[in-house]
Structures are given as structure tokens and as C-alpha cells.
Amino acid sequence: MNEVPIWEKAALTIEEASAYSSIGIMKLRELTKDSRCPFVLHVGQGKRIIKRKEFIDFISKKTRDSEKSLKLCSVYVIMAR
Predict the structure, then answer these.
(1) Could you tell me the pTM of the whole model?
(2) DSSP labels for 6-27?
């Protein structure tokens, strides 16, 4: 049986999501513990599956938000001079 590449999978294990994103397994477990987490699918007792597309969207949004915050901090530093 041929293995499907991670970037083509619809759902990932916590370990696959960690390898894909370079986010630690413990951090992913912490994020997915929240019932409002937009990219987790709870399967069975305690098993969590990561919805790849939603996970990518989440990471992209967090990255954009961080970049905006960084730009604002730069503006404040320049204004303070």
C-alpha cells in the first residue's frame, strides 16, 4: 500500500501535525484540549485528529496576527525615540 504524503492528507495525527508544522507535540495537545479548537476532531476516548486544512488556516492566521503585532511594536519604538 502506498503511503499518502502529509500535505495530501485530510487529517493528521498529533505526531504528523507536529512534524508538518514544527510545533511541539505537547503544545499541540494543549491547543487541542480546548473544545473551541477549530482544527481538532475528537475520535473515541481521548484520541485527537488534526484537520489539516483548518490547521494550516489557524497557523496562517496566527502568523499574520504576529506580524501585525510586530509591526505595531516597531512603530511604537520609532515613535518613542
Answers:
(1) 0.72
(2) GGG-SEE-HHHHHHHH---HHH
State the burial class of residue 54 (Cβ atoms within 10 Å of its Cβ: 0-12, 13-18, 19+): middle
Cell of 66: 504576529
The β-bridge partners of 50 are: 12, 40
Burial of 13 (0-12, 13-18, 19+ CB in 10 A): middle
* pLDDT tens-digit series, residues 11-38: 999 999 999 898 999 999 999 988 889 9
Using CB atoms within 10 Å of the CB of residue 44, give its burial: 0 to 12 exposed, 13 to 18 middle, 19+ buried: exposed
* C-beta of residue 14 within 8 angstroms of C-beta of residue 52: no
59: three-class secondary structure by DSSP: helix
